[in-house]
Amino acid sequence: MTFDDILAQVLDLLQRQGRVSYSALRRRFEIDDAYLDDLKDELLFAHPVVDEEGRGLVWSPWFAAALGTAYVLSDRVADALPLLEYAVERSAAMRVMTAYVLAVAAPPSGGVVDYHGSVHGVAVG
């Protein structure tokens, strides 16, 4: 497998999972530390990826949005569209998740919020 083949597979993995550890990349692709360093250099420089405390890579929807915007401003609209679509998808999902977590943490009127977001145990008066 070429460097570009592995790079494409790592990008696909990051987009699907959102994150991957460096040790998992070493094992999955049977690469040494020098090869992993080359992959990290390419991913961190040219893609919407951030290093998380030296443990692994995280696909960033906010960075994707910023990179997509930069592509639009430099007339690279075809490169921008997938990044911007991804950022919008992730942002919507994160808003829903945040609303759910807040509802569970502080349900209205002392009720309990179930997995589907319904409130139970609220006295009607």
Topology, number of strands: 5
Strand order of the largest sheet: 1-3-2
Order of helices and strands: HEHHEEHHEE
Could you report the average pLDDT, rounded to the nearest whole number? Answer: 74
Helix content: 55-70%
| Termini gap | 68 Å
Overall 3D geometry?
A: globular
* Discrete helix count: 5
Derived structural class: alpha+beta
- What percentage of the residues does DSSP assign to strands (E)? 5-15%
Q: How large is the radius of gyration?
A: 20 Å
Unreliably modeled segments: 113-125
Largest beta sheet, briefly?
Answer: 3 strands, antiparallel
Number of structural domains: 2
Report on the architecture of this protein.
This protein is α+β, with helices and mostly antiparallel strands and 125 residues long. The chain contains five helices and five strands. It has two domains: 3-59, Arc Repressor Mutant, subunit A; 63-120. It has helices at residues 3-17, 22-29, 33-46, 61-73, 77-105, and strands at 19-21, 49-52, 56-59, 112-113, 119-120. It has a three-stranded antiparallel beta sheet. A two-stranded antiparallel sheet has the order 4-5. A hairpin with a 5-residue loop joins strand 4 (112-113) and strand 5 (119-120). Helix 4 runs antiparallel to helix 5 (77-105). The model is unreliable at 113-125 (pLDDT under 50).
